[in-house]
Amino acid sequence: MYLFIKIVSSAAIIGIVTELARRFPIYGGIIAALPLISILSIIWLTIQGESAKTINEFTGGVIAGLPATIIMLLIIYMAFKHSLHLSLAILFGVIGWGFFLIIQKYITEIFFT
Length: 113
Known about the structure:
This protein is mainly α. Helices cover 88% and strands 0% of the residues. The chain contains five helices and no strands. Helix 3 (36-47) packs antiparallel against helix 4 and helix 4 (52-81) packs across helix 5.
């Protein structure tokens, strides 16, 4: 039952944000940039009885993923500015995201081990 509620509520939020973005692209982008998925995940983890340690580790993972996500969005933004097709823009963005995560891992290991 929880799975069904999670899927429906998440889909509803995505639908609302995309409809808002169609009418007001800048405001839709600002709302999409909110950590909606992170907040929903924290809420669902809490409702499902996960420990504070697990939720804390999840939150740390989200923070660790932010720089790579910013890089991915910048790549997609630049690809669209240069009129690349959606699939290529996303492909380059995901490749940049993965590449940055690898670099970030090695940098983190150098400075924090």
